[in-house]
Amino acid sequence: MFNQRKFVKVLLYLAMVLVAIAIFAPFYWLIISSISTMSELLCTPPHWIPKHPTFDNYLNIFFPKTGVAKAAKIFMYTVRNSLIIAGGVTVISLILGSLAAYAFVRLVFPMRKQILISILATRMLPAISTMIPLYIIVTKFNLIDTKISLIILYFTFTIPYVIWIMTGFFRTIPSELEDAARIDGCSRLGSFLRIILPLSTPGLIATTVIAFMLAWDEFFFALIFTNTPNAKTVPVAITEFAGRHLIDYGGMCTGGVLASIPPVLLALIFYRFIVRGLTAGAVKG
């Protein structure tokens, strides 16, 4: 019996190691590629540790000089665009999504469950199926190649996730707390701001991180609706390291490393809140 338990434990540790390798190996190779020369990246067999590491790719992005590829010159502009767009989408989605989720949980109105399900069902539509009508609408309002258009478009697919996550979390908060506040003279909106939101801090943080990552990583809409550095985002800028005759693998990997920093930092900083927020909304209290 003891040997069997020990064998199972060894298998579990082995599985954990294999999963960890599968998760971290691509990111390790991304970092190694960003500090390797082109000759090392193209050699066979590949060098898992660069013999002549260089930070030229990072210097070309942070301090672009004459002769540097256009993708490297505009990369920091796209980072700024992504921060503005993802931040705007997150704030708007969190405000409107929290209010909508609260309404679904506390208010009674016809077809409440059906409407909630239909909101999530909109995410089952492939993005390509809505591209033509969206492009026509954005063109008519002269919003092509603007940050506003991307904020509006990204909002349409982040808001369903925000509503669903916050709905599950609000259900865990006893309604008696609001009733007590209402008896003391607090309005419904006041009880929402003073009672519900402070108790929902873990859920709000988890939802904020998820909404930010969804907007930060989006590629398809940004590719179709942007043409210049005025509104291009990081995912689109990374693809521009690949030209017609040459692919700058080092620059592309460097862009990937820089693009992964904000989501990774958010996940590391708010790790505990993310876990608490997602698990708290999973069970009805």
Notes on the structure:
The chain is mostly helical and 285 residues long. It folds into 2 domains: 1-54; 57-280, MetI-like (MetI-like fold). The chain is 73% helix and 0% strand. It has helices at 2-34, 38-42, 56-62, 70-106, 112-121, 131-140, 147-170, 175-183, 188-199, 201-217, 220-225, 234-239, 249-269, 271-280. Helix 1 (2-34) crosses helix 13 and helix 8 (175-183) packs across helix 9 (188-199). The mean pLDDT is 85.
Short recap of the structure:
With 285 residues, this protein is an all-alpha fold.
Q: What layout of secondary structure does this protein have?
A:
Blueprint lengths: L1 H33 L3 H5 L13 H7 L7 H37 L5 H10 L9 H10 L6 H24 L4 H9 L4 H12 L1 H17 L2 H6 L8 H6 L9 H21 L1 H10 L5
Helix pairs in contact: 1-13, 3-4, 4-7, 4-10, 7-10, 8-9, 10-14
Q: Looking at this structure, what is the CATH superfamily of the largest domain?
A: MetI-like
Terminus-to-terminus distance:
39 Å
Poorly predicted sequence stretches spanning 5 or more consecutive residues: none
Alpha carbon gyration radius: 24 Å
Number of helices: 14
Instruction: Give the helices and strands as they follow along the chain.
Output: HHHHHHHHHHHHHH
